[in-house]
Design goal:
mainly alpha; Cytochrome Bc1 Complex, Chain D, domain 2; 2 domains
Length: 282
């Protein structure tokens, strides 16, 4: 019987050691688990951002002037923006509620023409609650950059490029690069209104009632009976649509939706590249 007592005692002691070791390491294990879970959530959020948010808020969350504000920005994380909109709660809750419920009206002091849609299924949107949380984690992850003092606000501002202006022939356009133009339409958020949604006239042939793309329709529009602009050919029509978008509106669309900022913010090369790309969409 003695050996049984000894074995039993050893087993009890071994069990206590294992339990103690597990308890000591539990906080570190849970921290690793939480970090891994958050990393996966941010990764999923990045994919959701790319498919749902990038066209308005920019590829890196830098915002698009006249379309949507920056999310990857110091003023969001240092409290400035929350003060401007009168929010007194936590930033994470502000981001969560904005993603979930959208913004039917622009915040005071802003001039973004598009409302932000509702994303959470709780309010009639397309995303599950966990997907909303993924997006929140992704946006909040931008804040780590500014907490470390290495955000964009520390970089020297690039000199402003000279805008092309609203004249349709002066300056003359340089040769355009269609590939760069396509990238610009994504960077500026144009595809969010003209390709992935119907906020503006559809660019692609299979999305337009006529069955033709903007590259074909541009030449036809200047000869249409209701055309009220100043363009005389397809290139001028596309240029006019970019730099002076309210001169002529396609049927069913209203003025003030497309940002009227590109005459001042895009260079002649930018406009030439965008036009070169649009002309490929037959």
């Amino acid at each position: 019987m003695t050996w049984r007592v000894v074995v039993g005692t050893l087993l009890v002691v071994a069990t206590m050691i294992i339990v103690a070791f597990t308890a000591i390491n539990e906080p570190a294990r849970m921290a690793d688990f939480d970090a891994g879970f958050e990393a996966r959530s941010i990764e999923v959020g990045a994919a959701l951002f790319e498919s749902n948010c990038m066209s308005c808020h920019g590829i890196t969350g830098q915002g698009i002037p006249g379309v949507a504000p920056a999310l990857n920005s110091a003023d969001l994380f240092n409290g400035t923006r929350l003060t401007e909109v009168g929010w007194t709660g936590a930033l994470e809750d502000y981001v969560r509620l904005t993603v979930a419920g959208g913004r039917p009206l622009a915040s005071t002091g802003t001039s973004y023409p598009q409302r932000m849609p509702t994303w959470s299924q709780e309010y009639g949107g397309p995303l599950r609650i966990d997907q909303v949380e993924n997006l929140v984690d992704f946006v909040m992850n931008y804040g780590l950059t500014y907490a470390a003092g290495t955000g964009a606000e520390t970089a020297a501002a690039a000199p402003a490029a000279e805008g092309i202006g609203a004249n349709l022939t002066d300056p003359a356009l340089p040769a355009g690069d269609a590939a760069r133009g396509e990238q610009l339409t994504m960077d500026l958020g144009c595809v969010g209104c003209h390709v992935t949604a119907t906020v503006g006239p559809a660019w692609l042939a299979d999305s337009h009632p006529s069955g033709t793309g903007i590259g074909t329709r541009a030449g036809e529009s200047v000869t249409a009976s209701d055309y009220a602009g100043e363009a005389t050919n397809a290139v001028e029509y596309l240029r006019e649509s970019i730099v002076n978008p309210n001169v002529y509106l396609s049927t069913g669309f209203t003025a003030g939706v497309m940002p009227a900022i590109y005459a001042d913010s895009l260079t002649a090369q930018d406009v030439a590249d965008i036009i070169a790309y649009l002309e490929t969409l037959k």
